[in-house]
Design brief:
Layout (H helix, E strand, L loop, with lengths): L9 E3 L2 H16 L1 H12 L3 H4 L1 H24 L1 H20 L7 H24 L4 H28 L5 H21 L1 E3 L14 H6 L2 H31 L4 H29 L3 H21 L3 H15 L2 H12 L5 H12 L1 H16 L5 H22 L7
Antiparallel strand pairs: 1-2
Length: 399
């Protein structure tokens, strides 16, 4: 029997290690909003310039999208994860060492590439497991745990005057533990479903990009990421400037947003299964609740309303991303599943750059108050894209 030309794209890995990795990714994303004012003051640059770092990160994600399918075929997920953890360390340390500002751009490029590889690899891995939808919700819930820890940790470190770079040094130490874990525990295994219709000549990326449903899912997640990260990164500055909340309290309010995101991913999928609500209906409900939360913040400018509404928004946003990733393998040919996930996870993260950057430009030249109507507009776009996805999916009953 002829041996396969490339390693199996699956592996045996403790699920807890995957959760731990997503905690780290969440810390990295969640702490950004708290540290942006410190970075702006230290390097003496405005928010519009700082926002360019998001663009560089997104280009790193884009590179991971172009390479993840091929790398998965050639190297296997074990080495994808090892490579991702290694490049994360290389990308985070320049921030911890306070290198000159221009050197932060290549660092963010490497960091974006690393997170793209880690997210893609672990999403592919979890989709191969039984009850993958539920486990994906848990996986991304642990991202929320990290995003919850991030603002709180950053706020405490700044209050203790330990220096903003201390946060990045701590993340580098955590990533080193993760790298050791991937090296020790990740082992490749065979899984026939992902090897269905193998081909040594087919360009899996090209075949994936020809599927209209892949682009619909990707654009939907691109806007979703724009809403989630714009609020996560700029809500702190919005609370300081437009609601006149103190820095310490503002940090904890942002943590409440990420707490809602985490609880939403832990709870809503289980509740929807018990009530018989499918993915299609649950996503509609969640998007509507996000819009309601944004309207409450906009129309009722009280601190207590900001606390409650940001929690509601996070809670409602929570399950949307993992639910979308979970249904992707059901909407494409099985052998294109890993490549499709790589494309939508990585390309959609362009939203991490474009939308938060534009939110920063609006904040600098118009005012931080623009964050709420801006996010509401993106939410309406997200609703329209979900309706298009439901209408054009090859089999909408799978949604």
């Amino acid at each position: 029997m002829q041996e396969p030309a490339s390693p199996s794209p699956t592996l045996r890995l403790p699920v807890g290690l995957a959760f731990f990795c997503f905690v780290l990714i969440g810390i990295n994303d969640g702490v950004n909003g708290v540290l942006l004012p410190s970075l702006s003051a230290f390097y003496n640059v405005g928010y519009a310039v700082l926002g360019l770092l998001f663009f560089v990160s997104s280009f790193g994600y884009f590179l991971s999208a172009m390479s993840s399918g091929l790398l998965t075929q050639r190297l296997g997920l074990r080495w994808i994860l090892v490579l991702g953890a290694t490049t994360f360390l290389l990308g985070i340390l320049p921030f911890g060492l306070k290198v000159p500002f221009l050197l932060l751009f290549p660092a963010r490029l490497v960091l974006g590439l690393s997170i793209g590889l880690l997210e893609t690899g672990l999403n592919i891995y979890i989709t191969t497991r039984p009850r993958s939808t539920l486990i994906l919700n848990y996986l991304h819930a642990f991202y929320g745990v990290g995003a919850l820890i991030g603002p709180a940790t950053g706020t405490i470190i700044l209050a203790l005057q330990w220096g903003w770079n201390t946060v990045y040094l701590l993340m580098g130490g955590v990533d080193l533990l993760l790298l050791i874990g991937f090296g020790i525990f990740a082992r490749p295994v065979q899984l026939s479903v992902l090897q269905e219709k193998p081909s040594t000549t087919e360009n899996v990326l090209s075949a994936t990009l020809k599927l209209p449903v892949v682009w619909l899912i990707t654009f939907f997640l691109l806007v979703y990421v724009g809403v989630e990260v714009s609020l996560g990164n700029w809500a702190y500055s919005f609370l300081l400037a437009s609601r006149h909340v103190g820095p310490f309290l503002a940090g904890w309010i942002v943590s409440g947003y990420w707490l809602g995101l985490t609880l939403g991913r832990f709870l809503l999928q289980n509740v929807s299964e018990r009530l018989g609500i499918g993915t299609k209906g649950l996503v509609y409900i969640c998007i509507s609740a996000v819009g309601i939360g944004l309207l409450l913040i906009w129309l009722i400018p009280l601190e207590v309303m900001a606390v409650l509404a940001l929690f509601l928004i996070g809670f409602s946003l929570g399950p949307i991303y993992p639910l979308t990733v979970a249904i992707t393998p059901k909407l494409v040919p099985a052998h294109l599943g890993p490549s499709a996930i790589g494309v939508l996870v990585s390309v959609s993260i362009i939203g991490l750059a474009v939308f938060p950057w534009f939110a920063g430009v609006l904040a600098q030249f118009v005012g931080t108050w623009t964050l709420v109507p801006y996010s509401l507009g993106l939410t309406l776009v997200m609703l329209a894209l979900w309706r298009a996805l439901v209408g054009h999916a090859p089999d909408s009953s799978k949604l």
